[in-house]
């Protein structure tokens, strides 16, 4: 995520930071890390505004790589993995399954789908599936597990939406940390 600032504000801040000496990297690191936490929260809220996922699940999928004194960079990313449709509110109907993927809008009805349990790495997982052609060697019917958009796909669209509030928050955090450091120094 890239954030841009106005040049006059940066020059003013750099003049103040040059007076601080060795405290400047600490100040910017603290401001960047606090901003990263805020950006993660905003991204989670925006993602949950678009799709009908729980906050804990989205928060678990959003990763933050924090800045340190030598590397003044924050990276927010989302794991690239499809979301099982059972993560969304769903109902098993007589002839299929209905799933509410989007926060706003109608439920999607999937004809011929069914809910079943599969063994995934030694643990039982509920999935929504549809029958596919063919059979396994033991005679069982083959089926395809259904997925919905991943958190990373939704995060790709949300990044642009949160850019402005995050850049404003970063400016406020740098100003706050600067005042805090100058107050301590005097």
Give the secondary structure arrangement, pairings included.
Blueprint: H1 7-20, H2 23-50, H3 55-61, E1 62-65, E2 75-78, E3 83-84, E4 90-93, E5 96-99, E6 108-111, E7 113-120, E8 123-135, E9 141-145, E10 147-148, H4 151-185
Antiparallel strand pairs: 1-2, 3-10, 4-5, 5-6, 7-8, 8-9
Helix pairs in contact: 1-4, 2-4
Written overview of the protein:
The protein is of the alpha+beta class and 186 residues long. The chain folds into 2 domains: 7-80 and 151-185, no CATH class; 83-148, no CATH class. 45% of the residues lie in helices and 27% in strands. It contains 4 helices and 10 strands. Strands 4-5-6 form a 3-stranded antiparallel β-sheet, with no helix packed on it. Strands 7-8-9 form a 3-stranded antiparallel β-sheet, with no helix packed on it. The protein has a two-stranded antiparallel ribbon with strand order 1-2. β8 (123-135) and β9 form a beta hairpin. α2 (23-50) packs antiparallel against α4. The protein is elongated.
The domain tally reads: 2
What would you call the shape?
A: elongated
Residue runs with pLDDT of under 50 for 5 or more positions: 1-7
Radius of gyration: 23 Å
- E-strand count: 10
| Percent of sequence in beta strands | 25-35%
Helix content bin: 40-55%
Counting helices, strands and paired strands, the structural category is: alpha+beta
Order of helices and strands: HHHEEEEEEEEEEH
Please work out how many helical segments DSSP would assign.
4
Distance between the termini: 35 Å
The average pLDDT value, as a whole number, equals 84
């Amino acid at each position: 995520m890239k954030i841009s600032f106005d040049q006059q504000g940066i020059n003013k801040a750099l003049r103040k930071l040059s007076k601080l000496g060795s405290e400047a990297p600490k100040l910017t690191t603290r401001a960047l890390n606090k901003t990263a936490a805020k950006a993660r929260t905003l991204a989670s809220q925006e993602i949950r505004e678009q799709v009908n996922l729980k906050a804990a699940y989205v928060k678990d999928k959003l990763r933050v790589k924090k800045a340190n004194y030598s590397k003044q960079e924050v990276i927010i990313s989302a794991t690239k993995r499809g979301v099982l449709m059972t993560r969304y509110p769903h109902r098993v109907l007589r002839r299929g399954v209905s799933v509410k993927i989007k926060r706003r809008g109608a439920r999607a009805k999937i004809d011929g789908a069914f809910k079943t349990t599969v063994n995934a790495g030694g643990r039982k997982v509920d999935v929504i599936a549809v029958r596919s052609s063919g059979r396994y060697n033991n005679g069982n019917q083959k089926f395809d597990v259904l997925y919905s958009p991943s958190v990373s796909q939704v995060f790709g669209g949300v990044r642009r939406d949160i850019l402005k509030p995050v850049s404003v928050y970063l400016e406020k955090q740098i100003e706050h940390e600067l005042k805090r450091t100058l107050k301590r120094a005097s």
